[in-house]
Amino acid sequence: MGITDFLLEKITKVSSQKKDMKENIWSKCSGCGEISYRQEIEDNYQCCPKCDFHFPVSAMQKIEYIIDPHSFIEFDAGIRSLDPLKFKDSKKYPDRIKAAVKKMDMNDAFVGGMCKINGREVNIGGIEFGFLGGSMGSVVGEKITRLVENAVKHRRHVITISCSGGARMQESILSLMQMAKTSAALAKLRMEGLGHISLLTDPTTGGVTASYAMLGDVIIAEPKALICFAGPRVIEQTIRQKLPEGFQRSEFLLEHGMVDTVSHRKRWRKDMIRILDFFGYN
């Protein structure tokens, strides 16, 4: 390689590195369209410092915003989905699961366990939207149920964090069964005098909304989150009418009594501590 070729290769490499560095430093907000330093966004709980748009974050990150540092102990991490219906669309269901496991480095769409919040033991779990749209199949329903049953056994309150496209179609009726199963588990929790705080993040839809997510003793919503059973487009096409501005968003639901409060991520921990203090010790 001649000196000219060497210098050209070096310049191209440096330019590419500078471009990557710039892209890593800046981020464009999907809410207001403004560009901000990534560090500013991170310091603001992954929210836009100009308009407070909540950027998507993982289920585990949401959990960490709430709990005492390094206090989380995961339950049932090894459970994996089977393929009882031999479902196939453009891909076989096991292939979709395998790809999601590799991409997200988790075995299914729910992560849950025991943690401490302000020194108090609480069971907490959240749905990971990046795993097949956070869909609730047999494994997700089973893990939520086990989380709640463990809470009953050890006299702990429960926090669930929802972010889901709804029931997992590849499991058909077996997925829909999880709506009843998770709801029944929460009924037992309530009978034992234990509390359930449900945190709804963008989006929370379908069978998840129609079951455990709306069964919280206190329901908290992330700002501007889509929370619904059927989405706005489906409803508009069905009733052939234009829906109100902000329909099915957190603030609309708060105004109509469907959620108890809308809370910025930076307030989640304080809100949880205050609600748990109200629930009391068991």
TrEMBL record:
Extent of the signal sequence: none
HAMAP family reported for this sequence: AcetylCoA_CT_beta (MF_01395)
Function statement: Component of the acetyl coenzyme A carboxylase (ACC) complex. Biotin carboxylase (BC) catalyzes the carboxylation of biotin on its carrier protein (BCCP) and then the CO(2) group is transferred by the transcarboxylase to acetyl-CoA to form malonyl-CoA.
Pathway connected to this protein: Lipid metabolism; malonyl-CoA biosynthesis; malonyl-CoA from acetyl-CoA: step 1/1
Note on cofactor: Binds 1 zinc ion per subunit.
UniProt EC number: 2.1.3.15
Any one GO biological process: malonyl-CoA biosynthetic process
Binding site for Zn(2+): C29, C32, C48, C51
Source taxon at top rank: Bacteria
Assigned protein family: Belongs to the AccD/PCCB family.
Protein name per UniProt: Acetyl-coenzyme A carboxylase carboxyl transferase subunit beta
UniProt source species: Geovibrio thiophilus
NCBIfam families (alphabetical): accD (TIGR00515)
Domain CoA carboxyltransferase N-terminal: 25-282
Keywords: ATP-binding, Cytoplasm, Fatty acid biosynthesis, Fatty acid metabolism, Ligase, Lipid biosynthesis, Lipid metabolism, Metal-binding, Nucleotide-binding, Transferase, Zinc, Zinc-finger
CC per GO annotation: acetyl-CoA carboxylase complex
Zinc finger feature spans (C4-type): 29-51
Main location: cytoplasm
Assembly mode: Acetyl-CoA carboxylase is a heterohexamer composed of biotin carboxyl carrier protein (AccB), biotin carboxylase (AccC) and two subunits each of ACCase subunit alpha (AccA) and ACCase subunit beta (AccD).
